[in-house]
Amino acid sequence: MSGTITATFEDLDPPNIDDGNTGLTSFSPYLGLNYQRFSAIDVQPEEGRVIFYTLSRITSAVGSLIDLLPTSIPLPVTPPAILPAAPAKSFDLDSFDFGCVVRGLAPMVDGVIGFDCEIQIIPIRAYPSDPQQATKTCTYTAPTSTGSPETTGAHYKRCNVGLKSLKEARFLTTPIISEEQCKVIGGVLDGVTEAALVTAMDNVTYSLEC
């Protein structure tokens, strides 16, 4: 087992950086892991660079936002996932920082607004003989809500995962949109015809088994 690694994604080359939440860039492998359906983006000025996956897009008027946002996002055929890159056989996922945001894409809105969400980390074990581990769940409360969480950065919450000997870690996000957040988001996205719901992650801490 390797020592603990913390991936901050700050040293990715510019061609691997997404220019607008399209989710089409790729940067795998990175520090011994492959990132499936993840892209990296610069978040300026305070947060630096983060990775993200897109939950869904809203392509109609955003006036009745709460009707447009699903209460849960079904697991896609190819879900967002983290896997060990060769020669590693498995990895332990310790923790990461995360948050959920909605961003206007057409026209592009300067900045993003957070919304409450729940993220599930679904473990796929590397060895069939290992005991099955339970899915880990972490909850994010956006700074726009009453009673913001303790954060490790400007907009993120730490998720302590503690899953061992993984062949794959899959991610599933469920948005939790309050009436208060609906009003805030609706005001920011007034006039926007397309928006993306995004889960952002940073400071992924793990160790590799070769």
Describe what you observe in this structure:
By secondary structure, the chain is mainly beta. It has a single domain (5-209), classed as Jelly Rolls. 7% of the residues lie in helices and 47% in strands. It is built from two helices and twelve strands, in the order βββββαββββββαβ. It has helices at residues 65-68, 179-188, and strands spanning 5-7, 17-18, 33-36, 39-43, 48-58, 81-84, 90-106, 113-114, 116-125, 136-140, 157-176, 194-209. Strands 1, 2, 3, 4, 5, 6, 7, 8, 9, 10, 11 and 12 form a twelve-stranded mixed beta sheet that branches. A hairpin with a 4-residue loop joins β4 (39-43) and β5 (48-58). The longest helix has 10 residues, at 179-188. The protein is globular and about 55 Å long. The protein starts with a strand and ends with a strand.
